[in-house]
Each structure stands twice: as C-alpha cells, then as structure tokens.
Amino acid sequence: MELPDPLRLRTEFAEEARSERPGLARLCLLVGAVADPARGEPGIDAAEVELDRLAGELPHRPATPRDWALALAELLGTRYGFHGTESDYRRLESSLLQEVLRRRRGLPILLSVVWLEVARRAGAPVHGVALPGHFTVGFGPPDGLVLADPFDGGTLLSPADASLLVTGVTGAPLDPSLLRPADPLEVIRRVLNNIRAWAAARPERTDVALWAVELSLLLPSHPADLRYEHAQLLVKCGDFVRGARELESYAEVVAAVDPEAAELVRGRARAARARLN
C-alpha cells in the first residue's frame, strides 16, 4: 500500500540522506516538499527541470575556475537576477529550494545550492564552502580556489574578502580548513538549522519547527538534545502522549551522565501526561 504523501516524503528523505552518495538537490527539494506537501513530487520534478535548463544556458565550457565563476555569475546573478537581501532572512521561502528557484531570492546557503547544482550539471569543478554565518561557493582546487558569493549575485571574493566575512562572525582570522568542500549532509543540516531558527523566533509556527526537527532526526547523525527539542515541540502541539514518551526516552540517555537532569526531564514527562486528564 502506498504511504500517505507526507510520510512518503519523509521516508524518501531518510533514504536519500542515508544513501551512499546523498544528492544535495534531492534533499533540499524534499525539504521543500515537506514544507508544502500539496506540491509534492510534481514540484520536485519541475525544480529539477529548471536546474537542468539553467545549466544548459551556460554558453561554453569555461577554461579556468575563474572563468567558471564568472560564467555562473553572469548567467545566474546578472541575467536571471538570483541574489539575496536582508529581508530574505525573515522569510521561510528563502530556505526552500523550489521557492528560491521561483523567486530567485534566498539565503546564502540556498542560493549557493542553486549555483552548485547548475555548475555541477555543466561539469564545473565546484563545491560548497561553509564559512561561518555565510555560505559561499568555491571553484577549482585548493591551491587555485576561486570563491564566489551567490548572495551578492556571484561576486568573486578575494582571500581578504573571505577573511573579513569570517572575522566579522567569529572574531578570528580565516582558517584554511574552512575552505574545504562541504558535504551534502553538512549542507542539509545547516539548511534545517536555519529553518528551526526561523521558526523558533515565531511561536505561532510550531508546525514548521516540528517538521524541521523531525527531518533533522532522520539524518545519519544528530545531537542527542535534538530529541529533547522534539519532545518539547510535540507537547506544545498537544501531542502529549508522544511528547511524554520522547521525554522519557531522552531521560534514559541523560541518566547515565546527569541523573538530576534526567529526573527533571521525567518530571516534565509526567506533567505532559497529566495534561491528558
């Protein structure tokens, strides 16, 4: 029997995340489909077609990493107007790939996903660069790396520019290890963290926080306290039985290292069950 659509989408997300080579576009598109199940698979297919179409519009096969970066900036940043603004941080759509492709606006990490997927389809030597607080895209090998900022329409970043971005967030200079390729699971974890942060600032959107946490729990690895966050959200949503069970399960994990904290969590589980009366 075919699974109901929301459940099927989550099952597909888990299978993709745990596959030998997780597909970044597929993972991001499944997040978008969970956010708007009404669009489902047709929306995923349409987004894949759009990425293929954009890749087909690159006029030639550039010779150097810098040429690739400039070609992508001209196509996506100048011709199609993909970029971001501060207001995009206040919109959930800025974290959903289908919507970013439609609006041509988004957060740095989702705009970078567009750059990555279009460039990859065209054969570019490209990877994501997860700088603290500002995701970018790198072209070429480490000794000749060219960085581009999709949030700024694909502007090329000098080493000094990149160092300034990092220093502004961390207060420390750029560590070369930060320029390593970001793997798809690292990217999708960061996307989901952004969605959780967006929802946390909006108590009325507990529904968004819940599905973002539940998708995060489907990744191959996650912090243990994510289960506590999940339990709290279930209780907020009125699912007291599941919330209490999650709290009790989390308490068992915590008990081995902090018995007092575990007892506090068990107390919250009992309080959740009491709300059923």
From TrEMBL:
Pfam families: TPR_9, Transglut_core2
InterPro entries from the UniProt entry: SirB1_N
Protein's recorded name: Tetratricopeptide repeat protein
Species of provenance: Streptomyces albidoflavus
Top-level taxon of the source organism: Bacteria
Domain Protein SirB1 N-terminal, chain residue ranges per copy: 48-193
UniProt similarity note: Belongs to the UPF0162 family.
